[in-house]
């Protein structure tokens, strides 16, 4: 097998699985080394310290696996470097189809986004990639990438669902406030009709004003007022405020 005569796609067909194994071996060695270090620092009577030799063996075995994975990958990475590299388009791993990206810094991705590689597209130009994958190419990384009619329908349906959810939430809040107005109106009518409950409607209100001597806000004097009407007025104002927030 002559790597110098192989295409980027042919090389990466072998290299990508080796890269995955190397990454797994590297994480295994890291975990084993961390476990061994914890055992070294642990008190002598602890469970971790009693198994120090076993953890050291695990660490050494993990190091052997990592060194082997690196050796297997080395020729392909060396050829990659010798040619000055070639394009490798990361592909997001999601529950759906995922998208191909120019790199790992796309604004549509997150630190937790997982990626994979497809060797079939190694070495292609960006135009060639988009021509092959079509709407699977990220339109942020490749603005000229097509969006299929089906893809547009899904996006519109998702947007409509979000608007519907907001509207349902708004309607729930509106119903609560409208019910508040109705309940206060009923209570006000009931209390006005019953002489024993007129105090709630025709009570007194303590006004707030600024004390000229101290400059502070204080209550007083007490003047005739209607707590029921005031509560009704506040309920109607809150209803009007909420109605103005109706999503469009």
What spatial form do the alpha-carbon principal axes imply? elongated
Gap between N and C termini: 64 Å
Q: Report the order of strands and helices.
A: HHHEEHHHEEH
Number of domains: 3
Low-confidence stretches: 202-207, 221-225
What class, by secondary structure content?
A: mainly alpha
Question: Number of helical segments?
Answer: 7
Number of strands: 4
Q: Strand fraction band?
A: 5-15%
User: What about the largest sheet?
Assistant: 2 strands, antiparallel
Average of the residue pLDDT scores: 82
Helix content: 55-70%
Instruction: Going across the biggest sheet, name each strand in turn.
Output: 1-2
**Radius of gyration, taken over Cα atoms and rounded to an integer in Å:** 35 Å
Structure description:
There is one protein chain. By secondary structure, the chain is mainly alpha-helical. The chain folds into three domains: 1-83; 87-147, no CATH class; 153-243, no CATH class. It is 58% helix and 8% strand. The chain contains seven helices and four strands, in the order αααββαααββα. The strands form two sheets. Strands 1-2 form a two-stranded antiparallel ribbon. Strands 3-4 form a two-stranded antiparallel ribbon. The longest helix is centred in the C-terminal third of the chain and has 45 residues, at 149-193. The chain starts with 7 loop residues before the first helix and ends in a 5-residue tail after the last helix. The relative contact order is 0.08.
Concise synopsis of the structure shown:
With 248 residues, this protein is mainly α. 58% of the residues lie in helices and 8% in strands.
């Amino acid at each position: 097998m002559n790597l110098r005569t192989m295409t980027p796609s042919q090389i990466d067909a072998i290299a990508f699985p080796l890269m995955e194994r190397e990454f797994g071996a590297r994480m295994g060695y890291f975990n084993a080394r961390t476990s061994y270090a914890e055992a070294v620092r642990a008190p002598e009577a602890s469970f971790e310290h009693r198994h120090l030799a076993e953890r050291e063996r695990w660490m050494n075995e993990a190091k052997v696996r990592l060194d082997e994975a690196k050796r297997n990958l080395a020729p392909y990475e060396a050829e990659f470097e010798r040619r000055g590299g070639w394009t490798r388009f990361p592909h997001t791993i999601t529950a759906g189809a995922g998208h191909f990206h120019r790199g790992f810094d796309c604004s549509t991705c997150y630190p937790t986004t997982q990626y994979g590689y497809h060797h079939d597209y190694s070495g292609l130009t960006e135009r060639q990639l988009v021509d092959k994958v079509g709407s699977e190419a990220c339109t942020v990384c490749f603005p000229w990438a097509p969006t299929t009619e089906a893809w547009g329908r899904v996006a519109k349906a998702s947007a409509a669902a979000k608007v519907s959810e907001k509207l349902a939430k708004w309607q729930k809040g509106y119903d609560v406030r409208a019910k508040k107005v109705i309940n206060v109106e009923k209570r006000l009518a009931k209390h006005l009709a019953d002489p024993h409950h007129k105090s709630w409607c025709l009570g007194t209100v303590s006004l707030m004003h600024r004390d000229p001597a101290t400059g502070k806000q204080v209550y007083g004097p007490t003047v005739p007022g209607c707590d029921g009407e005031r509560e009704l007025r506040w309920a109607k104002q809150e209803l009007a405020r909420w109605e103005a927030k109706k999503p469009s």
